[in-house]
Write a structure and sequence with these properties.
768 residues, alpha+beta, 7-stranded antiparallel β-sheet
Length: 768
């Protein structure tokens, strides 16, 4: 790697900082004694990019990773383009679940001034205005103009809390829209039963989807603060209107959820919300979010930059959802029949971890691996334990579980780098041999690598047999199309990288034979590199290159990418890739040209709507709107040109991750916090090319955005108190570095090891 630094002596005085820790329930949240002028929660802008929302993008009345994610829905049909869509001015209900392939329990407070019979079940939506709306993490307030109702929402982890204020002249009621399309699911077979004057219970079923192959039930226990006067059921839709005491114009409603039973929904409510103090719950939610977001404190920059930073960090902490109850019961659909299973309990009878629903970890090697692994190791450990629980139940570690089952979303064994990174960072220390065996199974015939996207009934779409026999996955796969994402060149690159990460785990456990096997397999990426064109290029089953190959044509042998973008997906062997290209200088020239060309389009192919309207957008050489090429700015570090890493990473921040508006924000696919986490890392100047999977994981250094970034290190996992990143002479005209030092010692490469960071200290970037 080229020398970055001058010989100028650069002295740094390290100042010791005392840190006060306070533990919070379940997530062991940390807080700092030095409170900033504004709390992190006050800087979050939840409506970011909500004109382009997916079902699970927007959150409001939600705790970190909460089972309940309660918010208004303005669009309800479809996983894409549904949920809270900012430009739609009509609320169609408040629903409690906005998860990966999950939805459920939509309710709507209504004011029936006159008798309407069953017409109310067809016509109950209400317009609203953003002028009368207030949104922050853990809270949502809106005015339903049709009914004159003020609605406020908040939640605990498993209980939604509603506060409705009806006008003086009204007949208060709540409509339960149980049987309806809702996001990715068709909710059906909804039931609502009155238990007493204040209590309702019931269940509904989420029908199978293309991605989630089995039906999945939701159970609920509901308490109202006022008396239930009567219930009206629509015999056509099967939905209900619950009328409450006419004299009480303020109605509070608690909704406890569970995926296992009504009894456990009740237990969740008793454990988490045994009172009716709405403001107390809002305040507790704020405190929980502040503690989580406050593990990373930024100083300097503009207020807009700080708001975007904490909004992205908030995204990285709330996309994936708890599915287990407070007592550790959880739904298991991995077998032939559904069962209620039980998480292991500690000495006090409490679950040792939570169980989770999650979109794919495809791309997490460059995002969650690094962010969670440094600032949220407790979350990393929880997810590793949860993934292993799926293995114990169903025999495979999933890459994106939903409904207590496998979805086979995306491709490969994308959780391997995530788990190996946790092991290499000493976050996960126990049962390593068992974990290794579980990961190894996924990389062999019968494992998850064999299955391409959403391939529920066969094991042919992943092409693993060809990969093992020929050293590459052909395109097309001769047996035909069984799932999705069966683009052979991409599959080859992905498998090779994931094999390399598993080899590092094998080496740690001194499994020399396995180490050799997976290291040899990790070189298979070379089999889809075409030296003549200097691109990765698909081959057919006979070993012939794809004719008339266009490296800019989207999904032409590459999953959610084109050949130009995917060529750089060799995170475990950048120097080997450069050698194939004719050396580091030629590789730099090639990649730099791709960035220059992509800059004209803002480094993204745009939203799905934009690509639909302008298919030529997908021809962009580098795309920071989706995962396959988001490592590319830091490739320059490995090619001896850290100045280009600094330059292009800042340009990406400016053009992709600086907006703060409902109309923009991610310009592509924000998969449950992956792109939010990337934005945070870019602005901290930290990245891990191989996903943090080497023996002492290495952080590539970029160009931090802020004057000072302080990361509180978790005392249960790391020996240090605080890791501080500070900048000198930073600014819009000073993006190139002169030198970097750690604890006063000038670094000679743009990299630092995990073992150094977690001891605590100060990393200082001096700009030219």
């Amino acid at each position: 790697m080229k020398e970055l630094f001058s010989n100028t002596f650069f002295a740094i005085t390290c100042v010791a900082t005392m840190v006060l820790f306070s533990a919070c329930k379940e997530n062991k949240q940390l807080s700092d004694s030095n409170t900033p002028t504004k709390n992190p929660i006050d800087l979050v802008f939840p409506q970011l990019d909500t004109e382009n929302s997916r079902w699970f993008l927007f959150s409001s009345a939600c705790r970190p990773f909460g089972m309940v994610n309660l918010s208004p829905d303005t669009q309800i049909d479809g996983a894409w383009g549904s949920g809270y869509r900012y430009k739609t001015d009509t609320i169609k209900g408040f629903s409690h679940i906005h998860g990966w392939q999950l939805s459920g329990l939509s309710v709507m407070p209504i004011n029936l001034k006159e008798e309407r019979g069953n017409e109310i079940f067809k016509d109950f939506y209400s317009p609203f205005s953003h002028e009368n709306e207030k949104v922050s993490p853990g809270f949502h307030k809106v005015h339903l103009e049709r009914y004159g109702i003020h609605a406020e929402l908040t939640s605990t982890k498993r209980v939604g809390l509603h506060n409705y204020t009806f006008p003086k002249e009204s007949r208060p009621a709540v409509l339960f829209n149980l049987n309806t399309p809702l996001g990715p699911c068709e909710n059906r077979n909804g039931e609502l039963n009155q238990i007493n004057d204040h209590t309702l219970t019931g269940q509904l079923e989420m029908a199978p989807t293309h991605r989630r192959p089995k039906p999945f039930k939701l159970f609920y226990h509901i308490s109202l603060s006022t008396k239930i006067e009567s219930i009206q059921k629509d015999t056509i839709t099967g939905n209900y209107v619950v009328f409450t005491d006419d004299e009480q114009k303020n109605v509070l409603m608690k909704v406890g959820l569970s995926y296992t039973s009504i009894e456990n929904a009740k237990n969740n409510m008793i454990a988490e919300l045994d009172h009716w103090d709405f403001n107390r719950v809002v305040e507790e939610s704020k405190n929980e979010w502040n503690n989580m977001l406050g593990r990373i404190k930024v100083e300097g920059g503009t207020e807009k930059q700080q708001k975007r930073f904490y909004t992205d960090l908030w995204h990285a902490l709330q996309g994936r959802r708890v599915i287990s109850d407070v007592n550790g019961a959880y739904p298991d659909s991995t077998g032939d029949t559904f069962r209620v299973a039980q998480l292991p309990l500690d000495a006090k009878g409490m679950p040792m971890f939570n169980h989770y629903n999650s979109d794919s970890f495809w791309g997490a090697q460059w995002t969650l691996n690094t962010l969670w692994g440094l600032a949220y190791p407790d979350i990393t450990e929880e997810f590793v334990n949860s993934l292993m629980q799926y293995y114990k139940d169903g025999g495979l570690i999933p890459r994106g579980p939903s409904g207590g089952n496998y979805t086979y979303v995306m491709t490969g064994a994308s959780t391997t780098p995530f788990i190996v990174s946790a092991v290499q960072k000493n976050i996960v220390k126990n049962n390593l041999d068992s974990i290794y065996e579980a990961l190894r199974k996924n990389h062999m015939p019968g494992g998850i690598m064999e299955k391409a996207g959403y391939e529920h009934n066969t094991s042919l779409g992943g092409g693993l047999g060809y990969y093992l026999e020929k050293g590459y996955v052909p395109y097309p796969i001769p047996e035909g199309k069984f799932g999705g994402h069966q683009d052979g060149a991409s599959l080859t690159l992905e498998y090779a990288y994931q094999d390399w990460t598993l080899a590092q785990f094998a080496k740690k456990l001194q499994r020399e034979e396995d180490y050799k096997i997976f290291m040899n397999r990790s070189q298979n990426y070379k089999n889809v590199f075409d030296a003549e064109s200097s691109w990765m290029r698909p081959k057919n089953v006979d070993g012939q290159w794809k004719s008339d190959f266009d490296p800019y044509l989207y999904e032409n042998g590459f999953n959610e990418s084109n050949g130009s973008q995917a060529t750089w997906f060799v995170p475990h062997d950048i120097l080997g890739l450069a050698q194939l290209m004719g050396g580091k200088e030629k590789a730099v020239e090639k990649l730099n040209g791709q960035f220059k060309a992509s800059e004209k389009q803002g480094f993204t192919s745009g939203t799905s709507h934009e690509v639909e309207m302008h298919p030529e957008y997908s021809r962009i050489p580098i795309n920071y709107g989706n995962q396959p090429s988001i490592n590319t700015a830091f490739v320059f570090n490995h090619l001896g040109r850290p100045d280009l890493t600094q330059y292009w990473s800042r340009e990406i921040i400016d053009k992709v991750f600086s907006g703060l508006d409902p109309s923009t924000g991610y310009n592509g696919d924000e998969d449950q916090g992956l792109m939010g986490a990337l934005s945070v890392l870019l602005k901290m100047g930290l990245f891990q090319m191989n996903g943090g999977t080497d023996s002492d994981p290495v952080y590539d250094l970029g160009s931090p955005l802020f004057d000072k970034i302080s990361i509180t290190l978790h005392p249960d996992y790391f020996p240090g108190d605080k890791f501080v990143i500070e900048t000198i002479n930073n600014g819009i005209d000073h993006k190139q570095l002169e030198q970097v030092a750690f604890n006063g010692k000038i670094l000679d490469t743009m990299a630092i090891e995990h073992s150094s960071i977690v001891k605590g200290g100060r990393l200082t970037f001096k700009f030219k």
